[in-house]
Design goal:
single chain, seven-stranded mixed β-sheet, 360 residues, alpha/beta
Length: 360
């Protein structure tokens, strides 16, 4: 499952080519440098694995509403979590950068700071203020009924990114754009099996409960590890809520309860980097405990270079170009897929140093 330098992982059916993109230019939490510093112009673009147009689609006529010129439209973006996480920094910046590139001058952005009630309130207020398009990075997958009722009454299309909402596409929301999270978990399991030599004890640092990302990254990993390496046993699972500090605390507890742990699967890079801090604090050396995580941040890819991590499966946060391209097609009357799945690369010992500039 390794990826050669600069290449995208092959997909069974790539229905789209590289789309317009923007490199994240927000500052990295670790280095204080621009997240796009040193990144080649072609790096970071989201590539469509499945555009969804061979399955159920949605059109403006089906969804209801009227044509909108995005340049003059009132657009809202709702971010779910505080922007200390490099993924969220890059995601929000991508939305802002692409809006500016397209000449969208009326963009409202909000941040729920990991408070679901606040995110619901943020979105409802944007609908009340007259937004004509909503892009939402949802904190939770359930609990959006009041938002859907308001949006439906005003025929405001909703594009969800990076996490899916449990609702009906082309009715409650327009489309979902994001990764195949179960496949990410499977790929992480394959890399963990290789790193651990197909035997040993592994712990899972779970993401936040209540969303499909955590559920699918967990099930994909556990099912695949049982399949490819039955002598690897999952002996510990605890949520770190996708946060570095919590990942560190959970790993400290893990090292006390299971000091002979051989591998740690972090369902995002921030928790994995917290685990690295805990391992260092416990006197472990790089490579003593194999670490595999998901996201593709510079800090995590650097951890591979430094020997602390074995592999990182990317989850590309640069949604701006694809979200606005999808909205443009929709308002032009073209059909858009109800599920648009992007293709994620991965980093390992073979390409981490060379491809560090592609990370965010």
């Amino acid at each position: 499952m390794g990826v050669s330098s600069g290449r995208w992982r092959p997909a069974a059916a790539i229905l789209g080519a590289a789309l317009l993109f923007t490199s994240a230019c927000a500052k990295s939490e670790d280095s204080g440098e621009s997240a796009s510093s040193g990144t080649p112009a072609s790096a970071g673009a989201q590539v469509v694995q499945s555009a969804g147009t061979d399955g159920p689609t949605c059109t403006l006529q089906q969804y209801g509403g009227t044509k909108v010129d995005l340049k003059t439209a009132k657009v809202g973006f709702s971010q779910s979590e505080k922007e200390a996480n490099p993924f969220r920094i890059a995601e929000t910046q991508s939305i802002k950068d692409e809006a500016a590139k397209l000449g969208i001058t009326n963009l409202t952005t909000t941040n729920a700071n990991s408070q679901f009630n606040k995110q619901i309130s943020d979105v409802e207020q944007m609908i009340d203020s007259g937004v004509q398009l909503l892009v939402i990075a949802p904190l939770n997958s359930d609990g959006w009924d009041s938002v859907f009722a308001k949006a439906s009454a005003k025929k405001v299309p909703i594009i969800t990114i990076d996490r899916k909402i449990n609702a009906t596409p082309c009715k409650d929301y327009l489309t979902f754009i994001g990764s195949d999270f179960e496949e990410q978990g499977r790929r992480a399991a394959q890399e963990m099996a290789k790193a651990m030599g197909n035997k040993g004890k592994v712990a899972i640092l779970l993401g936040s409960p209540g969303n499909n990302v955590t559920t699918l990254r967990t099930s994909g990993f556990k099912e695949e590890i049982a399949k490819v390496a039955p002598d690897i046993k999952v002996v510990f699972e605890q949520t770190g809520n996708f946060a570095r500090e919590e990942g560190q605390k959970v790993t400290e507890q893990l090292l006390q309860s299971t000091p002979d742990i051989n591998g740690i699967y972090g369902e995002n890079d921030e928790m994995a980097l917290g685990a690295v801090t805990a391992l260092k604090g416990a006197g472990k050396k790089a490579g003593d405990v194999k670490i595999v995580s998901i996201d593709g941040t510079k800090g995590a890819v650097q951890a591979i270079v430094d020997g602390w991590a074995s592999a990182v499966i990317e989850s590309n946060p640069r949604f701006g170009p694809l979200a606005f391209e999808t909205a443009t097609k929709f308002f032009a009357g073209e059909p858009v897929g109800q599920d648009i799945i992007i293709q994620d690369r991965q980093y390992g010992e073979d390409n981490a140093k060379a491809d560090l500039g592609s990370a965010y």
